[in-house]
Write a structure and sequence with these properties.
The two termini are about 15 Å apart. With about 55 residues, the chain is mostly beta strands. It is built from no helices and 4 strands. β2 and β3 form a beta hairpin.
């Protein structure tokens, strides 16, 4: 099974491609654990781009 590389990005509403810790790209930022197959959430009520920073 091949993992998506650290640094992979996904946008709010897309299906999470890899379980792990994801960080919002930009400011303000936050991190969240998101499981593969879940929809990427908004942050602060707005659509954002998430970047994978650590595997689960």
């Amino acid at each position: 099974m091949t993992r998506r590389p650290i640094g992979t990005t996904a946008k709010t509403g897309e299906i999470c491609p890899e379980s792990g810790v994801w960080e919002v790209v930009g400011t303000p930022t936050t991190t969240a654990p998101i499981a593969k197959g879940n929809r990427m959430p908004p942050y602060g009520g707005v659509a954002v781009t998430w970047r994978l920073i650590k595997y689960a």
